[in-house]
Amino acid sequence: MSWHEAWGLRNRARALAKAGIDATPKEEVHREGKWVVRVVVGGDGGEEGAVSGPNRGLQPAAGIPAAPRPEGRGSDVGDVRRPAPVLLVPPLMVRPMVFDLQPDHSFVRTLAGAGLPTYVLDLGVPDQTDQGMRLDDYVLGVMPAAVDAVRRHAGTERISLVGYCLGGLFCLLHTAAHADRNVERIVTIATPIDFSKMGFVGLLGAAAAGRVDPLIDAMGVIPGWMATAGFQLLSGRRTVARLFELPSREADEAYLRSYGSISRWLSGLVPYPGEAFKQLLRDVMRRNQVHSSWLTFGERRVDLGTVGCPVLAFAGDTDAIAPVASVVALREHLPPGRVSVRMAPGGHVGILGGPGAPEAVWRPAAEFLSTVSGA
Q1: CA gap 266, 224 in Å, rounded
Q2: What is the rounded distance in angstroms from the CA atom of residue 56 to the CA atom of residue 209?
Q3: Burial zone of 181 (CB within 10 Å; 0-12 exposed, 13-18 middle, 19+ buried)
Q4: Cβ-proximal residues to 313 (8 Å cutoff; 6+ apart), any chain
Q5: Which is nearest to 320 in space by CA: 250, 241, 239?
Q6: Which residues, at least 6 apart from 230, have a Cβ–Cβ distance to it below 8 Å?
Q7: Would 214 be classed as within a structural domain?
């Protein structure tokens, strides 16, 4: 098959996927500027698995059966403890659709189907007016405001956090920076901690720190297409191989929708605020201040060792962006009883959205989040 024909199949796959992306019903519960918090709601009006008390009306998405609630699990409404509400946090540059790729392939539906009140943070699409936004603004401003919005809506102080890539780092940094003891559990997916072990990506970022500041200042924000190009370069032969595999799967509509979803994810990356990107390169990648516990926001030093809740970290076995060694470094900050690391099949994208994600990541995460600490 020619390149032209393969590209035509790629476009067909993207068209098939379009309607199902981010299709799980959600309602906006809070908005500030460009960022929004939404809650996942039922799409069929059924009562199975509905949450009672102040969370009434939050149901598993349509077509997802509710998991039975085991003894000793639940929230603190009345005398019954049920699962704490869960807030999903994407990294900058990535839209929250990555948690809801297709109706039959959706992390949010898996969580909602397990009886977990599920919320999603959308960081919006930065533009030139956001050039001055720093990591401080997200960790000290957006994250606590989003967490408070979930708590108000859910009617409980308890909350669990789930973050993908640097979204997972935002979850950890929020919990540490604010000494938030009401964060019940944290799940991180492909979240690097030791940036000196990120291989080529880490070396490139450290080398660029400072040197590219004039270019970043001139652009204001880092365009999303630059990150898309970076993903494609890093995946190299794998990207081309998957494209030319399409002809052999032409009759498999489910496969085409899956391929189209990932393609739309990677081509839909959004800009990164310039100051936050310079801070990422300088303090996080070159100086490795997250791992050394010297990352400072204003006068507030953030030490991951102060995270007091259980953490489950997933690492992709072929991840070239957040290699296993960079993820498991979290064990150096937290005692064994507080952190668990699980391997999962896939690279940086596949670990969250690939065919192995439901069994290797989503369902174990739902089980972990459904367990009430101390119950």
Answers
A1: 9
A2: 49
A3: exposed
A4: 168, 187, 188, 189, 191, 327, 328, 330, 339, 340, 341, 342
A5: 239
A6: none
A7: no
- For the beta sheet containing 339-344, the strands, ordered from the edge strand earlier in sequence to the opposite edge, are 26-32, 35-40, 118-122, 86-89, 159-164, 183-189, 311-316, 339-344
Q: Are 86 and 369 in contact (CB under 8 A)?
A: yes
150 φ/ψ angles, rounded to the nearest 5 degrees? -65, -45
- The residue whose two tokens read 């990591």 is 135
Cβ-based neighbours of 23, under 8 Å, separated by 6 or more: 100, 102, 103
Whether 222 is in a domain gets the answer no
Averaged pLDDT, groups of 10, the chain, 375 residues long: 76 93 97 97 43 34 37 44 93 97 96 97 96 96 98 97 98 96 97 95 92 96 90 70 78 90 94 97 96 91 96 96 97 95 95 96 98 68
Report pLDDT for 374.
58
* Residues with Cβ within 8 Å of residue 161, at least 6 apart in sequence: 86, 87, 89, 147, 171, 174, 175, 183, 185, 186, 187
Q: In this structure, how many other beta carbons lie within 10 angstroms of the beta carbon of residue 373? A: 12
Residue 220 domain-assigned (yes or no): no
CA separation for the pair 25, 38 (Å, rounded): 10
Instruction: Identify residue 352 by its one-letter amino acid code.
Output: L
pLDDT value at position 236? 58
Q: What crossing angle do the helices spanning 237-245 and 3-18 adopt, rounded to 10°? A: 80
CATH number of the CATH domain containing 320: 3.40.50.1820
What pLDDT sits at residue 110?
97
Bridge partners, 315 (sequence order): 343
Give the count of domains, the chain.
1
Q: Taking Cα atoms as reference points, which of 312, 294, 316, 311 lies closest to residue 303?
A: 294
Q: Is 116 helix (H, G, I), strand (E, B) or coil?
A: coil
Q: Which domain holds residue 362?
A: 19-208+269-370
- Whether the pTM exceeds 0.70: the reply is yes
Q: Is residue 248 part of a domain?
A: no
